[in-house]
Amino acid sequence: MTSRVVVLGSVNLDVVTEVAALPRPGQTVTAHRVRRNVGGKGANQAVAAHLLGANVTLVARVGDDPESAWLRAGLAETGLDVTAVRSVPGRASGTAYIAVAAGENTIVVDPGANHSWPGGLGPDRAAVGTAAVLVLQHEVPAELNELAVAAGRARIVLNAAPSRAVPPALLARCDPLVVNAHELVDQVGGAISEGVHAAMSALLRRGAPGVVTTLGADGAVWATATEAGQVDAVGQIGAVAVEAVDSTGAGDAFVGALAGELAGG
Q1: Active-site residue numbers?
Q2: Is the pTM higher than 0.70?
Q3: 107 in a domain, yes or no?
Q4: Which of 124, 176, 117, 116 is nearest to 152 (CA)?
Q5: Around 91, how many Cα atoms within 13 Å sit in the side-chain half-sphere?
Q6: Closest to 251 (Cα-Cα) out of 219, 204, 208
């Protein structure tokens, strides 16, 4: 059994519409299929790590609506520990509206209960404190991530998505910070005309112990820092060639797999 991975993150009802082409602004298109899935970055990351053999606890919030029971049951069917997936009275569960065409997607998210954590971590502070690897992302309030980091001494994997600034104190704990190319641009505050490696080096100099940038079909690039903030090592991992049907959640699966590997040593 690997060391414990705790994922603090979102759970959403994904409403997925499959269309021939993604709509342009002002355009209406007809879906040829609609499906409902359990989603959210936290749920996706936790399930990915669990299915790869990691010992995972998901800490999340859903509403007190009918969807919440469906979401919790769907997660439990995977064998994931959902004791810390709790309902928030008076709130709706988070919902993501996803249009998919030819493997690409557009997503609009209503965060719902994912942004409602009355009492902070509350009864789940102890569970967060047991983590060897703590996975965080930006679909929950920023202050909640800070509380989670303070709750224990875990290795922090922060998926900085959706994009928002990472406070310096949190950046210094990210080992690694995980971003895609768009999020990398946001984190460095401008275009990356000098290339991905230069932008990642800038984040290392700002205090991040490690950075991973996912590049879709081109795989992922990683870099680690010395104690002085200089580049220690860099590398690139190629992507497995597949025929993509729906790329929704691919980045989340990557983060979950990474966390599981880190917990396993």
Answers
A1: 252
A2: yes
A3: no
A4: 124
A5: 20
A6: 219
